[in-house]
Specification:
This protein has 78 residues and is an all-alpha fold. The chain has helices spanning 3-19, 23-31, 34-47, 54-66, 69-73.
Length: 78
């Protein structure tokens, strides 16, 4: 098998794996705040500075509290 065929098979397998939720995805979905989490991460990806994502962070925090995740994971405010 040529290297290009091997690379194509590896790439195809990687793409198939990406379609399945991994442990991280499952944890995020279980919080009830996956949309807010995704928006927060997209903001950071676009702006490369968490300080520029204060609105997204606040929305995520409010969702987190509304879903009762503080009690579930015993989070304490710093």
């Amino acid at each position: 098998m040529s290297n290009s065929k091997k690379n194509k098979n590896i790439s195809t397998n990687s793409q198939n794996d990406d379609d399945e939720p991994d442990e991280w995805d499952k944890r995020i979905f279980s919080t009830g705040c996956s949309d807010e989490n995704m928006k927060l991460h997209e903001c950071f990806y676009d702006k490369k500075d968490w300080r520029a994502c204060k609105d997204e962070m606040e929305t995520f925090k409010q969702c987190w509290k509304k879903q009762g995740n503080d009690a579930r994971v015993e989070t304490r405010d710093a």
